[in-house]
């Protein structure tokens, strides 16, 4: 027996969104919009940059912290780079933080503190690509822009049973989203698609009975929604080796330094490490230490980046003299939350000093770290 499917419509999704949307701190809900409240482009942009490869629960606290310290894009533009990097620490993908600052500076200096209101204008800003420009244009300015993140990809791939594997299927998916995006309420439509993927059309055990598209979904008609989206086989991640050196002086301070601005973890704070990269191993022994001290082995830590796995041998030295700063600085172990330490460095320090982060979570994010 052949099942006759309905045509998917934006109206059915928007009706669902009006009743079941998530309440998010950066979002103007349908009820708020009805009262005349307009989206704040700064909040939309900030949240979209933070949400890339990061979960909503992890982002909420960071979003609140940024808004408290820098309530406008002009405030963020005027902030010290080190302060922004420290506030970002733990969110991962640190190039986003560097681009966030550059973009804020461009909006403040070149646009009078006002974000451009078109995809093209937004895409011309530093660090803003196709996804973010479409999302901000749609959500902040109600432009009819096709927004496609991981949640939307999953919804679209199931709705149309797109069997071509990602990432090659992205252009076809974008075409489908473009055709489905309405001229009226395109921002709500984009957010509705994201909410649908996050709460109903989930990767495992989607709740198809509650989906507003269930009468139009080709994957559901095939009784196999979890088959989609089809993904190309993952390549095994290479494993890299290196060492990290945790030095503590008699005043309870730890030696830190800043990584170069470019490259992996650029501009972030670190304990000294050897020259590992995504492509080459670094030295793992104490002979590679940044300065002479009584270096003792303190175990190993593993950290997974986007394209490789890193295994660091941890070396610890106590009662180190800090007469020579060795191109770095000494910071109290009890006040590390003020430092721009990425997760891998927090892991290294915690391995050498188990109570260093007793009141501070080592990871704010699930999934991929960098």
Automatic annotation (TrEMBL):
NCBIfam families, A to Z: mutY (TIGR01084)
Q: Which GO terms describe its biological process?
A: base-excision repair; mismatch repair
Q: Spell out the family assignment given in the record's similarity comment.
A: Belongs to the Nth/MutY family.
**UniProt keywords, alphabetically:** 4Fe-4S, DNA damage, DNA repair, Glycosidase, Hydrolase, Iron, Iron-sulfur, Metal-binding
What's one Pfam family the UniProt record gives for this protein?
Answer: NUDIX_4
- Cofactor(s) named in the record: [4Fe-4S] cluster
* Gene Ontology molecular functions: 4 iron, 4 sulfur cluster binding; 8-oxo-7,8-dihydroguanine DNA N-glycosylase activity; adenine/guanine mispair binding; metal ion binding; oxidized purine DNA binding; purine-specific mismatch base pair DNA N-glycosylase activity
Q: What name has this protein been given in UniProt?
A: Adenine DNA glycosylase
Q: Which residues form the HhH-GPD domain?
A: 50-199
EC number(s) recorded for this UniProt protein: 3.2.2.31
Q: What does this protein do?
A: Adenine glycosylase active on G-A mispairs. MutY also corrects error-prone DNA synthesis past GO lesions which are due to the oxidatively damaged form of guanine: 7,8-dihydro-8-oxoguanine (8-oxo-dGTP).
Enzyme class, one word? hydrolase
**Cofactor note (record):** Binds 1 [4Fe-4S] cluster.
Query: Which catalysed reactions does the entry list for this protein?
Result: Hydrolyzes free adenine bases from 7,8-dihydro-8-oxoguanine:adenine mismatched double-stranded DNA, leaving an apurinic site
Q: Which InterPro entries match?
A: A/G_AdeGlyc_MutY, DNA_glycosylase, HhH-GPD_domain, HhH_base_excis_C, MIG/MutY, MutY_C, NUDIX_hydrolase-like_dom_sf
